[in-house]
Amino acid sequence: MTLLPESRQQDLSFHDLRLESNFETFFKALYPQLCVYCKIKYNFNVHLAEDIVNTSFSKLWEARHTLNPTLSAKAYLFKIVNNQCLNTLKHQKVQDQYTQAQLNIADPLSATDDLDLKQLRDAINMAIAELPDQMRKIFELNRHDGLKYTEIAALLHLSVKTVETQMSRALLKLRKKLAAFIR
Amino acid sequence: MENTINDELLTRYLANEATASEKALVERWIALSAENCQYLDTLRQAWQLADARQTLDYVLDEMNMDEKWVQFKQAGEKPVSSKRPFAILAAAAAICLLMIVNWQWIDKRPSTNIALSTRPALHDSLHHATNTTGVPMKLTMGDGTGILLADQSALTWREPFTHNRAISMTGKAFFQVTKDDQHPFTVISGEITTTVLGTGFEVNSFHDIRVRLYTGKVMITSSNTGRMKNKVYLSPGQEFIYGNRIIVHSFLQNTASATRDSHPAEDPYIANSEENNWYMFNNQSLEEVLNQLEALYKVRIIYNRSDIKDIYFTARYERTESLASILARIAKLNNLKMTDNDSVMIIRK
Lengths: 183, 349
Description:
Strand content of chain A: under 5%
Number of strands of chain A: 0
Mean pLDDT of chain B: 70
Number of helices of chain A: 9
Order of helices and strands of chain B: HHHHHEHEEEEEEEEEEEEEHEHEHEE
Largest sheet of chain B: 13 strands, mixed
Largest interface: A-B, 67 and 68 residues
Distance between the termini of chain B: 80 Å
Number of strands of chain B: 18
Shape of chain A: elongated
Oligomer: heterodimer
Order of helices and strands of chain A: HHHHHHHHH
């Protein structure tokens, strides 16, 4: 696993990218980040995320000689990834209006979203670990094990109403604990 | 917030636990104001962060960037996604695929444009097809492959397809694959990758991923090498099941072709231990099978290597069964002739 330790150093200009070794470093540094972005912003699985990220790098590869050599390659790459994600959502012809509405929100991804993935993972694990036992158990049974509310209620001898309340409280707590990563 | 909308309902909405009327209610509420939309959006972001743990684990612990770079460099030449070790994320989806290869299409295939092969290696783009129309949808790929995509099913592939014949699939689809030895046709469903080696087969899954082979040959690999490290080749009449256990068995009744509910295909050779009164061959080449039978029965078996080349075999036999009857069945299945010469057995075309 190669990740540049200092994420701020990841950006390059199109001029830099003309050197293949620079492109390779850039690719290796941003590929994992972008996969995670596709997951946390659009809820795409790794498979789809990697397809999108690969396609985006291909487009960058093609454009690297034609674009203004002083421009930020990173900003351009984030823009491509974002467009690819939106296109994918449109192709999925998603029925629910919320997702449709989300398509119109302009700033889901941006190059300023520098993010240490290890730090993110630690923060998420910590936030979940800090939930009260029963609440965490219910949340994990739903999110990790994919159980329905009714199944969790039956398993833990609780009312469905209790499961609902606990799930909702867990989510509010997580939103608070993870506020640094939420806009 | 309005009386009817509360955090429990919004959480149910995100958890996909809301009823149709509740969903409509939430969606009307979002449409009321940008604040409402923003409120739900922050909840959704928290929700998706919590769900991202698996992705983060994969990206941080398993992703090999040198490998990804090599794959990227080769994109456009080869399927990049055929061996991708992605995490088990598609497991819950019902995956089902029906695939038929039509040999007659070989010569009808439109000749590949020369300009195409000289294109830059990285010139490709991602395409999707999703069918929610309620009826099967017809598609024709650039290589002439015809696809009938079932309702509630989706495909993802790269163009130019003639270069990179890999399709990622969820749901159910029927394929008429144009034969092209230079470019393997690959279907990826969850962890399982099925590569067409010139064949007619069906991959069908409800909770499990299932591959059924009718004619020809397919190769199956799993990205989850911890579960299944070897390639599995199917012989006609065999079904591969990737469920709680990995199983290869015969799905055709009344064919002597193979075993029922045999052992996992993890190891192609399941040891013939002394305490068992049966032994089995698991997708071994016929040559290996014959060599083992030779050793087991201490009888000489004569065959011409070229006659039995590329034949793979899965079968379970009782130890009490005679060598002659086993060989007769093997011969019959593979259009070979068997001669019983008392001290030696002869297998030939």
